[in-house]
Amino acid sequence: MTMINKQKVITGRISIDSYRQAHSQLYSEGWHKSLPESHTPLLNKLMAELKEQGFNKLDEFFAQSEELNALEINLKDRWY
After folding, report:
1. Which phi and psi angles does 4 have, rounded to 5°?
2. pLDDT one-digit tens code per residue, 8-60
3. Which residues are CB-neighbours of 40 under 8 A, at least 6 positions away?
4. Is position 79 within any domain?
5. Which domain range does residue 45 map to?
6. Angle of CA points 40, 44, 45, to nearest 5°
7. Cα–Cα distance for residue pair 21/23, rounded to 1 Å
8. How many whole angstroms separate alpha carbon 67 and alpha carbon 3?
9. Within a 13 Å sphere around the CA of 18, how many CA atoms are in the beta-carbon half?
């Protein structure tokens, strides 16, 4: 089992939520030609914020977030 830093995961979750909200707003008017160029800065910002918390890949963040979910609902022993 990985060592989890709860505060880093929580901060990462906030970054993910912000990304999802910005992503939804970007796509709210439908697809347009400049959409991919508008999306890239959102993804770059998310990755930079996650990297500040010590996550080099989305998979690393989601693995620790999932583990924290299990700990938060007391499934640690049954989950892993």
Report:
1. -105, 135
2. 999 999 999 999 999 898 888 777 777 778 888 999 999 999 999 999 999 99
3. none
4. no
5. 1-21+35-73
6. 120
7. 5
8. 10
9. 15
